[in-house]
Amino acid sequence: MDFGFTDDQRDIQRTARDLLGERAKPERVREHAEASRTDTELWSELCELGWPGIAIAEEHGGQGLGPIELSILCEELGRCVAPVPFLGSVMAATLIEHGGSREQRERWLPPIASGETIGALGAAVDGTAEFVIGGADAQVLVLVEDDGSARVLGAQEAEVSPLPSIDPTRSAARIVAGDAGGALPDGCAGLGRALVAVSSELVGVCDRALEMTVAYVKERKQFGVPVGAYQAVSHRCAQMLLETEKARSTAAFAAWTADANPEGLAEAAAMAKASASDAGREVTASAIQAHGGIGFTWEADVHWLFKRAQVDAVLLGGAGRHRTRLASILADRVRASAPA
Amino acid sequence: MDLTFSPQEIAFRDELRAWLEANPPAAEPSEGGEDAHYAWRRDWQRRLYDGGWAAPAWPAEYGGRGATLTESAIYFEEIGRARVPFAANTLGLLLGGPTLMVWGTPEQKERYLPPILSAEEIWCQGFSEPDAGSDLASLKTRAVKDGDEWVVTGQKVWTSGAQYSKWCMLVARTDGEAAKHKGLTYFLMDMEQDSVQVRPLRQITGEAEFNELFIEEARIPDANVVGGVGNGWKVALTTLMNERAGLGFALQIRLRQLLDDLIAKAAERGLLEAYGDALAELHMRCESIRLLAWKGLTDVERYGQPGPEGSLVKWLWSDTNQRLTQLAVDIVGPEALTAGESWSYELLRARGNTIEGGTTEVLKNIIAERVLGLPRLKVAG
Predict the structure, then answer these.
(1) What is the CATH number of the domain that holds B176?
(2) Which of A106, B181, B306, B315 is the most buried (most CB within 10 A)?
(3) Is residue B90 in a domain?
(4) Residue of chain B whose Cα is closest to the Cα of A259
(5) Cβ separation A237–B281 shorter than 8 A
(6) Residue B359 · residue A226 · CB < 8 Å
(7) Is residue B366 part of a domain?
(8) Chain A partners within 8 Å of B302 (Cβ)
(9) Alpha carbons A311 and A131: distance in angstroms, whole number
């Protein structure tokens, strides 16, 4: 029993944080967000380092590491709201790798792993996905439907209409694919892992929002004392930590479960996403509140975190939907254990 | 990260499980009130003791098994899972014994530890006072040196099991001039003296789990000072740290069982769908509590000290138990409010959870100040 990272995982985390601390400073993120532009320089660097392929098998050009390592990178990128199409790419890759045919894997995974191709994942109804994160930049799209089916297609096979997202650090698009694309034989088998990736990104967003808030309320003085000395404020910060740690623990558990106990992943991933979605909204909203008037301005950087959290919270289903899923898993369990 | 047990841990768990199955407690008494109930728990501890399972976390030299932290957590998970009662002398086993192991003299350890384990001598905790709750260090009970004895006068409250106890872990002020944390001393007070009066404190459930202690010139030999005169605050902190660490795992399992019972009840009444969202939320919270408790354990094993999880876990557990027992009234229906019914008991008892062992407000202060490093508001006086 060990809840901590291995030395290698800690190295990945430290290296990622150091790199992004240098390359994705707030002013640089803001510059790209205000122009609704991907940070192509940063993205190239991450691709050279093999980040998009971290969890893709070596035979498909990836690094062959696991969902825990992927989570670490998602969290670090979430912390700085990096303007790169990482999340869409790794989620698309996950669906292809775990639900696709050999041919689909061989065709799509190597270029995603190298960064040559950008992927995006969207939830569609009858071939139309209303809001696909990274959809305007992607060359390969994976669409999942409510019935558990999924398919992969090239972006040129669909009608892609870019949308202005409230989170301009990543593109968004409406995708109309009709019947185009090839079905993934195992459908949404990779969805649990994709949910873990979004959840981990949300944990990073929460972590940063809390860090910024704590720093601010220690500095900001009213009535002659730092506002963080007031319990109305400090207890809010404690609540932010609780929400963040709840989300972190369930995301870490789901990441571990993906490989160690695949049958448990549906439940663990639903918990992770519900917990992270709630935490993301609450913690970033609290961050704005604790910053006071400045938190409502465009100048302060907390709003990027709030916006990213809003988008991630509904991505692949909001908290309510995942709690409903969880409730049905619990109901099945009760029925299974009830005497016949 | 590896959330599975090692072969050694599994062997420990299986041995305990097999023992618990083969050695169940006697039937819970239906008559005789709290005294009979306490005698039943005392008998249960004796069975645990005879089987070598009273305190596996204690080192072998003191009669334990030298269990690792993980094994100790497994122990409480299994005790919870088997739905057996807590040992009668839980405060001695979890708080008093470990405190003596850190601060006691060789003579004190030899004299006091064995009867804690066998439940021959029950221990209680004399910390809180009517005017010293969260602000424990402001306590007023006074001990004055008289030859090779101390004479103690004061009042303590929330002393559970005092009527059955032989020894009280008592913190008293021995130096009125010193700063408030500095003038305290930790004593072992013999409860069997007329100058110590125990009065049951009836709580909102109607029962009296706790007591008030009225101490009027009680005598304590100098040999019963633990950890040195004036060092009481440090010794008390050892006790309080053990308080948060030990019981967590067992409480977490109790919560899980209560939730499983409630889900079964909801299924029975066809209410799973109507309350699905709320039940799923409770399920997630239970899982977070379990995961954060294990994470805390990993921190202790790796870094030698608990991380912020201890306070977070207690806060989350108490809040979740209150939500759960409140939801139960909706699911079970008004009959859950029948006095004496178990759901009504759980509902009322849960109100104490966010107060005992550190109020939620104090836990938030601890998190804000010690984990997040926020400044502390200076309070007058």
Answers:
(1) 2.40.110.10
(2) B315
(3) yes
(4) B2
(5) no
(6) no
(7) yes
(8) 4
(9) 10
